[in-house]
Design a protein that fits this description.
Layout lengths: L20 H8 L4 E8 L21 E2 L7 E2 L13 E4 L2 E11 L11 E4 L3 E2 L15 E2 L2 E8 L5 E9 L34 H4 L4 H8 L6 E3 L12 E8 L10 E4 L1 E4 L7 H5 L9
Antiparallel strand pairs: 1-5, 2-3, 4-13, 5-12, 6-11, 6-14, 7-8, 9-10, 9-12
Length: about 280
């Protein structure tokens, strides 16, 4: 479910000059979802978080403006606005078209082909300093199912994933709750090492978390290989759903903030994205 956040004190950033901003933005925008094909909120979606267009475009770097609690997106402070997330309840789904197809590519960083951003985060053991509890505790680890399609008609199951680990990171030069944006954006095209687990983050301060992210914007990394998907096919459609468990006592849901295609290493997009702030266009 959607979590609310606390405010903190603004930090100080380092200003970098813009480099090929227009060209990089034009090339990068095709790397995420660009069109909503269908949406069914299901029976247990979070009320008010029902705009599927919020899942289009780049991951959020700054959140909470409309709620009066502006702050950077960090692993302790994920996006939480109704203008930034769409909720999928039991029996519901979200289907989007990607700007460019996603392929199974073993040459991608860690073999990751797709990254899904949601609303999960680490519990802060020393608010507002950003220290992971030991053992690490996370909130918003919501389960959902993933399917892919080349034509928008025939969908192939990829499997279940846990939305929320690894949490999103907006900037390299901001604190965990800064009320002003940073100036050095992370790269949404470079996944965090998927072999990392919660114990790897246990007890780390904010600098330690940044180090493990290695410039990445975070998000749930997904390797689409190894399943029933046809070989060598590019998939332009993504469907995320939350199965109905048939139990009226439960209320499962998952939140989607962005879906990013990891480009092949030769494209150079991960490098450019590390120094350019590509904003979402809705």
């Amino acid at each position: 479910m959607v979590k609310s956040r606390n405010r903190a004190i603004a930090g100080v950033g380092i200003i970098l000059p813009g480099v090929l901003a227009a060209a990089a933005a034009e090339g990068a925008e095709a790397q995420w979802a660009v069109e909503v094909v269908s949406y069914d909120a299901g029976s247990t979606a979070v009320p008010g978080y029902d705009d599927p267009a919020t899942a289009l475009g780049a991951p959020e770097r700054f959140t909470g403006e409309l709620l009066g609690f502006p702050s950077v997106v960090s692993p302790f402070n994920p996006a939480f606005g109704a203008d930034e997330l769409v909720s999928i309840g039991e029996g519901g789904h979200l289907t989007v078209r990607l700007g460019r197809p996603v392929f199974n590519n073993a040459a991608n960083p860690f073999g990751v082909d797709l990254v899904i951003f949601g609303n999960g985060g680490f519990v802060d053991a020393s608010f507002p300093h950003g220290v992971v509890e030991d053992p690490a505790v996370l909130f918003g680890l919501d389960h959902a199912s993933l399917e892919l399609s080349a034509d928008g008609i025939e969908f192939f199951p990829v499997g279940e994933f846990v939305e929320g680990f690894l949490p999103a990171m907006g900037y390299l030069d901001s604190g965990p709750y800064d009320e002003t944006p940073g100036t050095i954006p992370t790269s949404p095209f470079t996944p965090v090492d998927p072999s990392l687990t919660a114990p790897d983050f246990a007890g780390l301060d904010y600098a330690g978390v940044l180090a493990l992210y290695a410039g990445s914007s975070g998000g749930t990394p997904i390797d689409i290989g190894g399943g029933p998907l046809p070989e060598g096919v590019g998939f332009s459609y993504v469907r995320i759903s939350v199965p109905d468990d048939g139990d009226v006592e439960t209320s499962f849901n998952a939140e989607v903030e962005a879906i990013v295609v990891v480009p092949p290493p030769a494209s150079g997009l991960p490098i450019l994205a590390g120094i350019l702030a590509v904003r979402r266009r809705r």
